[in-house]
Design a protein that fits this description.
The chain is of the alpha/beta class. The protein has one domain: Peptidyl-tRNA hydrolase (Rossmann fold). It contains 7 helices and 7 strands; from the N terminus they run βαβββαββαβαααα. It has helices spanning about 25-35, 75-85, 115-125, 145-150, 155-170, 175-180, 180-190; strands at about 5-10, 40-45, 50-55, 60-65, 90-95, 105-110, 130-135. Strands 2-3-4-1-5-7-6 form a 7-stranded mixed beta sheet. Helix 1 (about 25-35) crosses helix 5 (about 155-170) and helix 2 packs parallel to helix 3 (about 115-125). The longest helix has 16 residues, at about 155-170. The protein is globular, with a radius of gyration of 15 Å.
Length: about 190
């Protein structure tokens, strides 16, 4: 019985024009994770995204970057999870979070989508909310009608440095997350800021 994480999904939008936008914070983290574990992404049509298998301190898990655009992320997650029979509680979704400031990362299990289109589609596609979320703070534009433009733009250098620091903090607890030591990971991560 899997007690940790078997699938880590980084959310973002495909295409070079989106590479450096706040909405791609999930991609940034899984790219770093793949690189640090010596894994390389390969496009898999049947999973609607780029996939690789990573060994994180002795724990093997799938990494996935959907290429479906944010609001269809669930297609890719459901395809891979169903194929490998990965239960929803063994899935970690990494995404940008406007309700957290840059430099802050938080881990939690379950909950709603909070208006995040990627989470909304994953919940609809897999029919469950109990997957884990790693929320990478990108800050809030101040008004709700400015959110769409805000997340689809590049953060200024200083903010990007803060986001990168929170991604490093998250990567430092990834071994605990993958092996199922969620309390340790939360304690360590949440004490950072």
């Amino acid at each position: 019985m899997q007690t940790g994480i078997a699938l880590i999904v980084g959310l973002g939008n495909p295409g070079t024009e989106h590479d450096n936008t706040r909405h791609n914070a999930g991609f940034w983290l899984v790219d770093e994770l793949a690189s640090s574990s010596g894994a390389s992404f390969k496009h898999e049509n049947k999973f609607n995204g780029d996939v690789c298998k990573a060994n994180i301190n002795g724990c093997t898990c799938w990494l996935l970057k959907p290429d479906t655009y944010m609001n269809r992320s669930g297609q890719a997650v459901a395809a891979l999870a169903n194929f490998y029979k990965i239960p929803s509680v063994s899935i970690l979704v990494v995404h940008d979070e406007i309700d957290l400031p840059p430099g802050v990362a938080r881990l939690k299990q379950g909950g709603g989508h909070g208006g995040h289109n990627g989470l909304r589609d994953i919940i609809a596609s897999i029919g469950k909310k109990d997957f884990y979320r790693l929320r990478i703070g990108v800050g809030h534009p101040g008004t709700s009608d400015a959110v769409s433009g805000y997340v689809l733009n590049k953060p200024p250098r200083e903010e990007k440095d803060m986001i990168d620091a929170s991604i490093r903090d998250a990567l430092n607890v990834m071994q605990d997350i993958v092996s199922g030591n969620f309390q340790n990971a939360m304690q360590e991560l949440h004490s950072k800021s």
